[in-house]
Amino acid sequence: MTDKNENAMDKLKGKGKEATGKVTGDRRKEAEGKSDQAKAKADDAVSGAADRAKGVKDSLTDDDGR
């Protein structure tokens, strides 16, 4: 799992690649940018699910960790 800052940078980098690909007509670069953005979005979703699962676990355990 990656942190939120890294995912944000990956999204931004992906948008840049996509835009560059559109301007230059490089479909491969455009697709690579879209792929980078999708990967970052998926990592965000996994991270969010893990955080929610930890919250549920924490709410179900006693104060002393049992």
What does this structure look like?
- The chain has helices at residues 4-24, 27-60.
- Helix 1 (4-24) runs antiparallel to helix 2.
- The model has no long low-confidence stretch (mean pLDDT 86).
- It is built from two helices and no strands.
- Helices cover 83% and strands 0% of the residues.
List the helices and strands and how they pair.
Elements: H1 4-24, H2 27-60
Helix pairs in contact: 1-2
Residue runs with pLDDT of under 50 for 5 or more positions: none
Quick check: average pLDDT?
A: 86
Rg calculated over all Cα atoms: 18 Å
Residues in helix, %:
over 70%
- H/E element string? HH
Q: How much beta, percentage-wise?
A: under 5%
Classification by helices and strands: mainly alpha
N/C terminus separation: 27 Å
Question: What is the makeup of the main sheet?
Answer: none
The backbone outline, from C-alpha atoms, is rod-shaped
The number of strands is 0
Q: What's the number of helices? A: 2
Summarize this entry quickly.
It contains 2 helices and no strands. It has helices spanning 4-24, 27-60. Helix 1 (4-24) packs antiparallel against helix 2.
Key features of this structure:
66 residues; mainly alpha
